[in-house]
């Protein structure tokens, strides 16, 4: 009986593990989490270890944990380089109407700008521009390419 | 005449039957277009060539434009000329009705033209073959270089006489001409006749341009440009080529359209991550804020009486369509169906709003009543958006993009049109890839 009970418990644990791993595969495929890009294929660097861009979920402009970490690195970099100004370009994927995408690109760029400002970077040093869906970095019509295109990119202007 | 008219009314009635399409693929019925014979216009022997216009072919060229216009409506079936039984000049005087009825035609268009002393004189007649009667006739004089417009005006008159609705052939379409790979598109403003002829490029492609729209008299265009990397709404005078920024906004302005009286431009202004709707009076330059909400408010479109504005907002979470009074009061959401809704455009008749709908990875162009009821989806595709109305409110033009391969190959953007019945979907001829179409009103009005 005791053996039997132990076996049962073991089976339960195995089942639970299976279910959990099934969950995480459903959520994470390759370098996309939910539908936010987590890879680094398209990423450039403002300086060593300072990625230039953050990625967004479909129709969203909220910053993910990874996006905040990247922006904190950018703020540290900008604090060290006091004379440097930047433009944040906001972008959308191709799966929305053109005009709404212009608006959401602007909202994404401002989400990044606001976050940099809360870390002490003057708003005067950060301009924003939205390109909507007009400047995709990836041209494939796939969920992966769309996730790489939903981005805000911090670009040095001087 | 009565018979012809009855048959036509029947056609209209058949294609008008409404059908609920919210979840279903659109199936196109097979209708019986009205057989019509368009005789080449007879060229008067006293005619002279004029500049590069060869008088010899002008009569048949005009009749071919008329035939193309008729064919594009899906309502008419222009018959082959080889079967024609009478010479153009004799038919124009008085057709032998029984002969034309033999080739199963129900209507006949005849005409003649003369170019003399730098003037083009044209007359045409429309005949009801069953009733053996003339239905309408018209003569006019213009400069010879207008000969294509003459063909369109004749088409409009015949369409009006046979359908009881205003025509839409003597019109132009302004759009964005696109070239180059998907991640380096070069975009120019372009204008063409409704049938794809007379394409002219209004910008050089040095800066990104988007969403051109005509004013009610078709002389001005408002559009968005990234000139000097500042995304702003511009106003362009097509004849003089002069252009200016609309208003003095400290940020991106976009999604412009004219008010129905042409006096104002309504558009979105984005600042600090928030887009709201504004108007600017073109003459007084007075700017008014119409919406004030922390959500994205964009794609505004006036009702034809100027009393209301339909727009697109994500204030409920995702994009939906709202209607408000033109002063911004009385905001009401009108779309509650499954999916996301964008680009509302008020019909010139005032009774319908055309829109783009996104649902389960598909894009639809549809129409609904102005209170959001009676939604009908006209066409489903991988990507399509931005409907614009024909001036008679019967046809929508929009653009469609194809799915691209792994390296962006196979991508294209083209203009398409569809009747609001859901029938008669067709691609418009453009010299290049094209997007963001805006249909003019009738030029001859």
Question: In brief, what are we looking at here?
Answer:
The complex is a heterodimer of chains A (158) and B (445). Chain A is built from 4 helices and 9 strands.
Describe the structure.
The complex is a heterodimer of chains A (158) and B (445). Chain A is an alpha+beta fold and 158 residues long. Chain A has two domains: 1-29; 31-156, 2-Layer Sandwich (60s Ribosomal Protein L30, Chain: A). Chain A is 44% helix and 21% strand. In chain A, the strands form three sheets. A four-stranded mixed beta sheet of chain A has the order 6-9-7-8. The longest helix of chain A has 26 residues, at 2-27. Chain A is globular and about 40 Å long. The model of chain A is unreliable at 11-27 (pLDDT under 50). Chain B has 445 residues and is mainly beta. Chain B folds into two domains: 33-163, 3-Layer(aba) Sandwich (Rossmann fold); 172-439, Neuraminidase (6 Propeller). Chain B contains five helices and 30 strands. In chain B, the strands form seven sheets. In chain B, strands 1, 2, 3, 4, 5 and 6 form a six-stranded mixed beta sheet that branches. In chain B, helix 2 (55-73) runs parallel beside helix 5 (147-163). The radius of gyration of chain B is 23 Å and the shape is globular. The two termini of chain B are 27 Å apart. The interface between A and B is large, with 29 and 47 residues.
